[in-house]
Amino acid sequence: MSVISLRGIKKSYQLGENRVEALRGVSLDIAQGEFVAITGPSGSGKSTMMHILGCLDRPGEGEYLLNGKNVSSLSRDELADIRNKEIGFVFQGFNLLPRTTALENVEVPLLYTRPTMPAAERRERAMKALVAMGLADRHDHHPNQLSGGQQQRVAIARALVNEPALILADEPTGNLDTRTSVEVMRILQDLRETRGITIVLITHEPDIAAHGTRIIAIRDGDIVSDEANQAAIAHP
Ligand code: ADP
Ligand code: ADP
């Protein structure tokens, strides 16, 4: 079974008098354990794709099956529930709460999905995710006391805390220097290899896309190529 199955996904926006077709009928299957990079120039439909894959928005037409479940026509509340339980998000801007510690930031998804979990267990789980990201000694630091790379690792720990089968990473290296970007890509590759987590990465940068085991290029709302990336498969 595919983790993600898209069938004829269309999405358009009304822009003044014009209708902009952001996705023109995208069909796609992503299997468990793939690291798929979706790449394309500005305006090609990457953000729209990310919003649909992340259940942040619904397709105009077509079907989206996530872990075998049709999520195309669920209500906003149902989508929010799926988003919190089944998907880990990593963003360009880290999106950490500034006035809370690294540990508290990682606890946040558990507050939504497991409201009755005892605080001690919540802390323990969050700590485990931070340890996996090599940040045990930074657990009581606030985001502004951490480097960009460390902040992104906190965000990845937060994405992992609910043990999702899928991580969606939207331009996760956009605010990072080259060396730190490579470090973050290695972490994502490692999550795929050691835990079998499916990764979908959205990026406009070819060097970053090259870390995926499969590279999908989109242009003007259509998939224009979809190829296995032997280099990343053979030399992780
Ligand atoms: P990318 O992320 O690759 O830059 P987008 O998905 O943001 O691409 O945009 C695809 C197309 O849809 C573009 O032509 C863009 O201008 C248009 N678009 C995206 N969001 C909106 C919106 N909220 N309203 C109107 N047009 C939009
Ligand atoms: P970036 O830092 O990559 O620009 P944004 O902060 O703009 O990312 O977020 C990308 C999209 O995801 C936005 O439309 C935003 O509303 C949405 N978003 C951001 N953070 C969350 C979140 N924690 N949960 C759900 N949606 C989010």
Automatic annotation (TrEMBL):
SMART domains in the cross-refs: AAA (SM00382)
Protein name: ABC transporter
Origin species: Sphingobium cloacae
GO cellular component: membrane protein complex; plasma membrane
Domain ABC transporter per the UniProt entry, residue ranges: 4-236
Keyword Nucleotide-binding annotated: yes
Molecular function GO terms recorded: ATP binding; ATP hydrolysis activity; transmembrane transporter activity
Family, per entry: Belongs to the ABC transporter superfamily. Macrolide exporter (TC 3.A.1.122) family.
Entry keyword set: ATP-binding, Cell inner membrane, Cell membrane, Membrane, Nucleotide-binding, Transport
